[in-house]
Amino acid sequence: xxxxxxxxxxxxxxxxxxxxxxxxxxxxxxxxxxxxxxxxxxxxxxxxxxxxxxxxxxxxxxxxxxxxxxxxxxxxxxxxxxxxxxxxxxxxxxxxxxxxxxxxxxxxxxxxxxxxxxxxxxxxxxxxxxxxxxxxxxxxxxxxxxxxxxxxxxxxxxxxxxxxxxxxxxxxxxxxxxxxxxxxxxxxxxxxxxxxxxxxxxxxxxxxxxxxx
Length: 213
Ligand code: GAR
What we know:
213 residues; alpha/beta; Rossmann fold; seven-stranded mixed β-sheet; two-stranded antiparallel ribbon; globular; binds glycinamide ribonucleotide
């Protein structure tokens, strides 16, 4: 197998998606070389620390503006030699300058079937709308809010759901599965934009070995 891809994970909260990455791809297809949080309070930090992954906090309040924060964040991730940046419950918008440092190499997991319900409170938005099908999207990050090209999506019928917690509980395994799968595909070099429509992400399936050996 080829060398693990050095990746950084950005977090703001509980860190169950980070945990899924630590448990499945870390040390295999990918090496988590940095975890950065927007807040010192994120329980996600302890998950990374307990696995010996270098952590740092880049809180908006510690910098004059978002540009300065993202410059410091980008420099740290460059020092750590991260080649893919994974947003796993990261609740901040990244500046265009940050994204330009990692072209086509920032991905995000979002708890809705985009383009429905982008931004904060996606599950609350979906419940308020009264949808019966919920879902998860993993997508490339562009300069908009949850607007970059879709990598993977999965839907889940929950026609009677009323509470955010029950939807979140049902979506969690989908999130963990899709995010780890997207990182694996990226690490394998299996993701590319469709030349006919760069909004479409083509997933290259490895050629089957033919014959009977
Ligand atoms: C996840 O549900 C993720 O989809 C969501 O935050 C949660 C983080 O959970 N992200 C967004 O809403 C981004 N717009 P975690 O900290 O347990 O991984």
